[in-house]
Amino acid sequence: MFNTLSDRLTQTFKNLRTKGRLSEADIDATIREIRRALLDADVAVSVVREFTGAVRERALSSEVSGALNPAQQVVKIVNEELVGILGGETRTLRFSKNPPTVIMLAGLQGAGKTTLAGKLALSLREQGHTPLLVAADLQRPNAVTQLGVVAERAGAPVFAPHPGNQGAETDTVIGDPVAVARDGVAHARAKQHDVVIIDTAGRLGIDELLMRQASDIRDATNPDEVLFVIDAMIGQDAVATAKAFEEGVDFTGVVLSKLDGDARGGAALSVAKVTGRPILFASTGEKLTDFEVFHPDRMASRILDMGDVLTLIEQAEKAFDAEQAQIMADKVASGKDFTLADFLVQMQQLRSMGSMKKMLGMLPGMGQMREAIDNFDEREVDRVEAIVRSMTPAERENPKLINGSRRARIAKGSGTTTTDVNQLLERFENAQKMMRQMARGGGMPGMPGMGG
Ligand code: GDP
């Protein structure tokens, strides 16, 4: 996300770092480059102007001239101002003291509302909530069915127009979305769901009817949060769309979707500033787990290639089973061998964190390695997993059993070649050796290498 912008800004700062004292001309040259990078990334003109104005003023002040390292100080200022544009403090969902908490989703068709409904439901369930999804998008014939599908994946029930027929409607949906939304909230209250997520209809463009329907649903359900979902890839239109929705439905927060795309995405960065509404979440893919709380400070760090180690750690904590990790650590410390079966478990945990590319991208300084990251072949991980899965339990415990004919069988079973199998076994043996050494040295074992 924001790769191009990130690269441009990092390059600008690199040029700056070669200088000791900064003259006004140096600062102006830097500001110019920042301005160009932001504009090229589709950040709204008004936002760029305000941003560069603030950075320039601070950069010319004693804050920088008196600093030990002026260039670093400029980067710090840019970072702080960027955090400001993105909304400053992290803002989390507001829950009602008088449940159910009602969350209404609004936005253009294709923005990612239905997908977000599933992502939110899953994330809320993980936090112990009991969300109900309400299908108030009766515009698209398929919308109710689609919500049913994501709801099922999220493990949350759906309230749909024809009760008892959840998600089964395809082309015969008729009904009043306002009534459905209202009934959905009543249903949640009766069934003691503590959160209701209302999916509403979107159009391809902004139109009056759509806005009226959205504001009618809002008035009928009195939501605690109205989340405006915006596709980060829509470019300059983002600002106009956001303003139209701000006037039309007066949302309480923003969700940026499709941040995984390689689009310039800068327009989405303007939305918080232009509407004065905070960004609550970021959607980063089609899977329900591709979803993050939006932290303005961490996003600024990512854009400036300072890394987002905190999000990385949080995702790791979510994915890794502490008990399993302890068993593994004990096993290695006690001198027992780390087996291919253990390797498979670790790999599955690693996989559940999301794609390797996404994780690598969160490490500081990775901008320079972008090409390597982009070329990282996720399928390599698939291959390794397929190979280990094609082994028998006995083979995973004791790879020495794997003779020539077994190798051929494993290659066939995993759709790979015996060379692939040989390479994996060799790499595994090396990793095992390393872990034995570490165990002897008393250090904590890390992940055995599996990259090529
Ligand atoms: P809605 O019309 O607003 O309900 O939008 P949908 O939830 O149906 O999403 C439209 C399309 O965008 C679907 O194909 C989704 O799979 C896809 N989509 C939604 N969110 C994301 C995201 O964060 N990243 C990517 N790459 N695709 C997304």
UniProtKB/TrEMBL annotation:
- Biological-process GO terms, alphabetical: SRP-dependent cotranslational protein targeting to membrane
Q: Which domain of life is it from?
A: Bacteria
User: Briefly, what is this protein's role?
Assistant: Involved in targeting and insertion of nascent membrane proteins into the cytoplasmic membrane. Binds to the hydrophobic signal sequence of the ribosome-nascent chain (RNC) as it emerges from the ribosomes. The SRP-RNC complex is then targeted to the cytoplasmic membrane where it interacts with the SRP receptor FtsY.
Regarding domains, what does the record say?
Answer: Composed of three domains: the N-terminal N domain, which is responsible for interactions with the ribosome, the central G domain, which binds GTP, and the C-terminal M domain, which binds the RNA and the signal sequence of the RNC.
Q: What is its main location?
A: cytoplasm
Q: What is its EC number?
A: 3.6.5.4
Query: Where in this chain does the record put each SRP54-type proteins GTP-binding domain?
Result: 278-291
Where does it live in the cell?
Cytoplasm
Q: Which family does it belong to?
A: Belongs to the GTP-binding SRP family. SRP54 subfamily.
Cellular-component GO terms for this entry: signal recognition particle
Listed transmembrane segments: none
Name-wise, this protein is: Signal recognition particle protein
Oligomer status and interactors: Part of the signal recognition particle protein translocation system, which is composed of SRP and FtsY.
The residues of the intact protein that this chain contains are: 1 to 452 of 536
Q: Where does GTP bind?
A: 107-114, 199-203, 257-260
Which EC main class describes this enzyme? Answer: hydrolase
